[in-house]
Amino acid sequence: RGAAGTMMPGETPPPPAGTAAAAACANCGVLQQNVNEYVAALIALKQKMIDGDRLLTEYQQKCTDILCFQLLEISALRCQVEQMLQKILPLEKCQEELGSLKAELEEKKVC
Fold it and tell me: CA–CA separation, 111 vs 109, rounded Å?
């Protein structure tokens, strides 16, 4: 500024004191609104993360339950297969013996 309060070329006069305070209050209000929206968005995001974690935990539990059930079924089926094999082996031996006896009988018939 020049002497005695004169304006230099290109300078704009400062707004009156009341106008500056009003503009600052308006900016504070906008800033407060933005902060409130940001906090609300963060809270919503945190809730979504909590819900997502809960759903993931439930899904993992279901998968674990299904896997355990399948493993039990597989174990039961293996036991059944083992039992069937134990029954089949003696039958196969009997079939071999019958085949031998049949061959002997055929030989005797020929004789």
Answer: 5
Q: What Cα–Cα distance (Å) separates residue 102 from each residue in 51, 83, 88, 90, 92?
A: 75, 29, 21, 18, 15
Q: Is the dihedral of CA 20, 26, 29, 35 positive or negative?
A: negative
Cβ atoms of residues 11 and 1 within 8 Å? yes
What's the half-sphere exposure (Cβ side, CA atoms, 13 Å) at 110? 6
User: What confidence tens digit (pLDDT) does each residue in 39-74 have?
Assistant: 999 999 999 999 999 999 999 999 999 999 999 999
Q: How far apart are CA 103 and CA 109, in angstroms?
A: 10
- Whether the CB-CB separation of 2 and 8 falls below 8 Å is answered with yes
Q: How far apart are CA 92 and CA 75, in angstroms?
A: 26
DSSP assignment string, 66-86: HHHHHHHHHHHHHHHHHHHHH
Please state the pTM of the whole predicted model: 0.49
